Amino acid sequence: MRHQGPIAGIAAHGDWIATAGYDNRVILWRASTREAVGRGLHDHLVNNCSFNHDGSLLVTASSDYSARIWDVPGMRLRAVLAGHGDDVDMAAFSPDGRRVATCALDRLVRVFDLEGRCLHAMPGHSGNILSVTWSPDGRRLISSSVDGTVREWDAAEGCELAVHDIDGVRTDSLVILSDGSIVAGDDDGRIVIVRGGAIRYHPAHRAGIKKVVFDEASGLLVTLSYDRSIALWQGLRQGAGLPREVARSELPVTVWARAATALGDGRIAVGTFGATYGIFDPRDGGWDMDGVAAGPALNAVAVRGDVVVAIGDAGVLHENGQPRAEMGSLCNFLQFVGDHLYTGGQLGIVFDAHTGRALHQHSSPLNCATSFERDGVRMLAVGSYTGEVLLFEVGAAGELHLRHQLAVDDSAIKGLSAARGRLFVVCASTLVAWYDLRDWTALRRIPKAHTRIANACCPVADGGFASVGRDRVLRLWLDGEEASYPSPHPNSVKCLVASADGRMLMSGSYGGTVAAFDLHHRRWLPMRRPTSAGISALTYRAARQRFVASSYDGELYELSHA
Fold first, then answer.
1. Burial class, 95, CB count within 10 angstroms (exposed 0-12 / middle 13-18 / buried 19+)
2. pTM, to two decimals
3. Domains by residue range for the chain, with CATH
């Protein structure tokens, strides 16, 4: 019993460890033996998990819009907590174990009883809510969001108590100490301390902090960041001053910085891109990654002539089904520029995908890419998790020369396309933007082009662009026309590509469905579902007049237009 996708959440209680995976599974492990003893299933990605006060129950949060309560260790489903209108990012039991708080991308904090009845739904955040926790007395809830605020809520009355502005900076994770102090990690790499209404900041990492954990037994704060490091801090207990760093280690390439938990003996368990969790021991700086091997998930596919290449969580480039080169870490994109092929992902490195050679190091993970010509020179554009677009000149031998960097947004760049001298960018914040490829100036910016996270874009016929996202709407951005077409997909639309003539679009969703859109007749064709796993990427194979989809199940699927 192992995970087949990245581990996004992890929790510990006594001899139990629970892991939440992007393979829709939650797995219960015996910590002393690292043996998997039970499993539960969601209908979509599992984002987080948490035990109750005595370890008899586990709650999980999922992209199927629900949280679920399970018996421990039997993993029998006790209750489904429904009602959110988007991915549930986190769920946590109250200190007395009688209630569960959830937060979701629908920008609501909810409180449920253990039978699944919703007691309160609390609006207020203006952006996706990423974390929620209870005060030690169970009277308050504290949440953080991409809107740059930390908010306090009355858990009994279901109303907002306070708003703390974190300089407008996205804050992914927070904890509350026994004295009521709130400690969070923000996207500027700072530890944020909210104490008595005052806010203090302490520089901690070179990139955004994705997870904070407080170990009550030791009084240590743990931070994990996209700068690929884990750090431990003292000095936060009982009204003390700013944190003092006591340990730091580089994260192994298979560790995902968004998941960690304290084990009670001083060690830290972390999420990975592999089959099981890893363990860090700060006493000797050692990492136990036994059994951690990347799963089969594919994240990107590309075609050049008769050659089909794919890459995924394992960082292994497959060419026509055969392994060719290893990058050593999860990769998110593949982009041909002439005969040269580039990839990158979690490490923030742009690789020569054919050889595995590192060509450029960025400060945060990389998400997507496109290519174009500028004044007769071949260019590569790469989008990062932290809102930058890196613009490289491609040399004759495939070497990269960074010529410019666009600071597009504070959120992840989710898709890039280039056509007719313009670069089109879509962002996790729902922003879409156009840039002039001659001088890199911004031509137009639409902050709320989608109602939820924009995931992908592509060029279409006549020099326009199309975009899709979590709102499951196809949006066309044509010269002189903008139009929206709700898709038939039941889940968030992950990827989009056009046929060679730009007149037929193919879209793929996290639910494994694909649907083509006929641009000429402006209509969707019947939806299909080639796999129950998500569709991660799409490309067009002109020689066969077929689309090719990569999936998180590790397979490629060839698709006709209809």
1. middle
2. 0.87
3. 7-288 (2.130.10.10)
